[in-house]
Amino acid sequence: MTRKKVTALAGLPSGRRSKYAMLVFWLVLVAAAGPLALKLTEVQDNDALGALPASAEASRAVQRAQEAFPDSQKPLAVAVYVREAGLTDADRAKVDADRAAFSRYADGGQVSPPVPSEDGQALLLSFPVAGDAGQRADAVGGIKERLTTDTPANLRTALTGPAGGEDDVFDAFAGMDTALLLATAGTVALLLLVTYRSPVLWLIPLVTVALANQLASAVVYLLAKHAGLAVDFQSQSILTVLVFGVGVDYALLLIARYREELRRHADRHAAMAVALRRSIGAIGASAATVALGLLCLLAAQLPSTRGLGPVGAVGIVAALLAMTTLLPAVLVIFGRWLFWPFVPRYSPDAVGLDVAAEHGVWRRIAGFVGRRPRAVWLGTAAALVALSFGMVNLSIGMPHDKAFTKEVGSVTGQRMIEAHYPRGSASPAEILAAAGPAGQVVAAARTVPGVAEVGEPEVSPDGRWVRIAAVLADTPDSDAALATVERLREAVHAVPGAQALVGGDTAYLIDEERTVDRDNRTVVPLVLAVVLVILVLLLRALVAPLLLLASVVLSYAAALGAAGLILDAMGYPHLFVGIPLQTFLFLVALGVDYTIFLSTRAREEAARLGHRNGVLHALAVTGGVITSAGVVLAATFGALSVLPLVPSVQTAVIISVGVLLDTFLVRSLLVPALALHLGRRTWWPGALARPAHRPVAAPPPERVPAT
């Protein structure tokens, strides 16, 4: 975009008349978007959270089962009854009464007889729950109530199985969208109040980013309703956090530049025009980096990861539009008094004033970096490498009973079953095969080490297929069970003409791990390439972008290591398989944000003051605002920890720690020290790297006539 076009765009929200037109435009836009934003939960499809690609064997097994056994695809409810001292006649009478009561909820109206454990201490009732999602929710509520009615003393009961787990997820997230929004908005409001020390100013960016969130939610709703965009609770939660965090970052950068210009211009309209023109390049590059990085997730195969990309990108674009159009217009409309009690006054002496003099703390930090740049970057890099060793505390793969931050009935029931039945009883592997060689398939399955029991084949209504349950000897999500299913697949695949597929929970975990590995190998290089291209175009150099990219990758490794220490102490060291890729994307894209803010200002100042003075000046004048932005973003992502799922807590910890490391170490010490150590070569092959380049003697003030 040419300088003339940038000037024209900057004049729209800062013009004497156009500022009101911009405000009216946004009021109309939000009035239309508000009702649509409220409907976003109506188009959520949370099945995508647990879905695999259609090509995965577990997915193909589910598809075949749905086609061959259409009347038996309802989620299974498993009621478990346990008395450690041995079941009594009263206990058995309770089970029989419950079985009769449960028949009203069962698909087909029948509940199979209870299955006793070998130790005589437990009984199981299992049956598919009839109805659609709403009817099943009511049914599971009735089942849970019945389990606690007329229960003999000391008899333990619980509901587990897919139906119980589904209900626990719904219960855990009841009202969580509101809680997350309030936690995010409250965190941002507090930090803005502390940052600006003004009883009024903090409201403007907060209200603006809330309106941006409404716009983003409305657009996502329309895309989900009419364009097939997949939206789930995870992506909606990330959308809220992204819009608030990134939007407030852009607001902090723009307002800081606007405050500078208010001292240089008597007319606030001219001050905003200069501030917007000088900051829109960095803000736009930041938004492009994050949005395009998110769109790289479209190359992933895991549906929950792939769906997050476009949803997040919509949020970034909405934040960019609001903070570069609505926010400037509102700031100019209200005038200087918004900054009360620290109102920036115009002074003719401030036209050529070095604003670094007003940033005492960061001026001293810049002086420290400038005195010994080599020691600073080596020491900072060593500290980040040392932190990265904390990754040894983490492992990939989250057991099902570790997914919630609190105890839920389905997890309790699963543990009760594992204590009294073969560990794989609650989640057997499911073999789908052709009916002809069914006997050979059963025989092959029984020879597999780790398979405790193989059931009799259940023939489909059309007689073409059979379904065979294979109970594993080990806990379904253990390494031993995963190895058993791998052997089971090899054995049944080898049966001629069987067309056998192995599904079930353990098979799902195997295919999920393979899918995530493939996504990591594809998406990570793509994200790095996109970020590198944006940095090269922005800085018109090659060395600086490579340094910045290397710094954020090192920062990610350190963040994962530091988070490993924290998560291990919290008792959550087993990462959900999608966490490493998602957090990598956010930390690389968002981490580059702060280096973009610093490096664009450094390039601007180096052209006037020379390389060394330009880098130090940029560090001094951007240090406060970028640090505030980093703290806001870290705290905003920290709001994800209010959600009752361990993956959400893990995401909150990793990203918050990573953003803080990037803010206080990478952007403040490592990057400027490296730039000083390399000298003008940092900007190679651009003009700033050439010895012939000479900076101007003094920073020329930019004067804009009143509009």
Automatic annotation (TrEMBL):
Domain of life: Bacteria
Record-annotated membrane-spanning stretches: 20-38, 172-193, 200-224, 236-258, 279-300, 312-339, 375-396, 522-539, 546-567, 579-597, 618-640, 652-676
Domain called SSD: residue spans: 201-333, 547-677
Keywords associated with the record: Cell membrane, Membrane, Transmembrane, Transmembrane helix
Main subcellular location: membrane
UniProt keyword Cell membrane, yes or no: yes
Pfam family, one: MMPL
UniProt membrane topology term: Multi-pass membrane protein
Signal peptide start-end: none
Cellular localization per UniProt: Cell membrane
GO CC field: plasma membrane
Similarity comment: Belongs to the resistance-nodulation-cell division (RND) (TC 2.A.6) family. MmpL subfamily.
Name of the protein in question: Putative drug exporter of the RND superfamily
Organism encoding this protein: Micromonospora viridifaciens
